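[step 3/7] fold_predict: job queued, chain A
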Amino acid sequence: MRCLIIIDLKVGKFSYSDAGQMHLYLNYAREHWMKPGENPPVGLILCAERGAAEAHYALDNLPNKTRLLGGQQGSCRVQSGRVAFPGHSIHHGRALQSRLDFSLTLMPDPLYLSLWFPDFSGPAMLPYALAVLQQFPFSVQRPGITYASVQPVSWNEASVLERRFSPGISPEEAVIVAADLIHDDYAYVFDAYWDLWTPDETGHQWRLIPSPVKFILQGEEFDDGAHHETGHIEIDFGLDSLFVQENVELTEETQAKIRDNLAKLVEFTKKAEINTRATSRRLWSESEDSLPQKLIARLQKVQ
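[step 4/7] structure written:
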């Protein structure tokens, strides 16, 4: 079998979010890295402990092939930094691992902005939500809020409201949609787009393409107080590849496009903190690498 294998090493117990993260990685690999004649990429999650129920419900019926190995179980092992697969010699395993290391090194990460506010209970959350949405530079091609949903209690529950808007609606209209369902144990999701410079498959032709952004408002009692970790308002920018572009050759045009994307990100991040009375903010990703260092290193290369 010739295919890309993406390995995610986890030091703790497997959780359903690990499956979602791997699914994102595999979709990206299939779209950008898969070569003609190759089979679809396969995901391998190595963790210290796995729960049978979590693995069953998180991994069954996914369109991407994903294998979970925990503890001493399974047919793959990690020893002294080497990954050994059944049916492969160690020499073959090293050659395979070299490609895996390359893939893991260049793997983009989801990028988030978390914002916290002094009072986010009941109707008080609406002015903050409106203020954040008003700072956002909406796409010219796909303007406004295109989707809104209301989630009760936790992400495991079914949504109590879902609406799509074409054309998109204004931030003021989006807040009104949620106003009749304000509860401290609810979360509210708004989808929008902004225009970012995006290269084609060759990396030479760039276009301003609408890129999705998700705004997630979390009441203070939602999902056992998840806002303490991810913010009263969490903004999901998608993958950081549009701001880092590690796989694109640095020409003068490339440098200008990356600078423009980064400038839009930095400007919105500043406005979202300064103009909304936020008490704190955090720009972060799920990578173990420091996101600020990653962005600064790339920015230094294009200056």
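[step 5/7] annotate
The first strand starts at residue 5 and ends at 9.
The two ends are 43 Å apart (CA to CA).
exit 0
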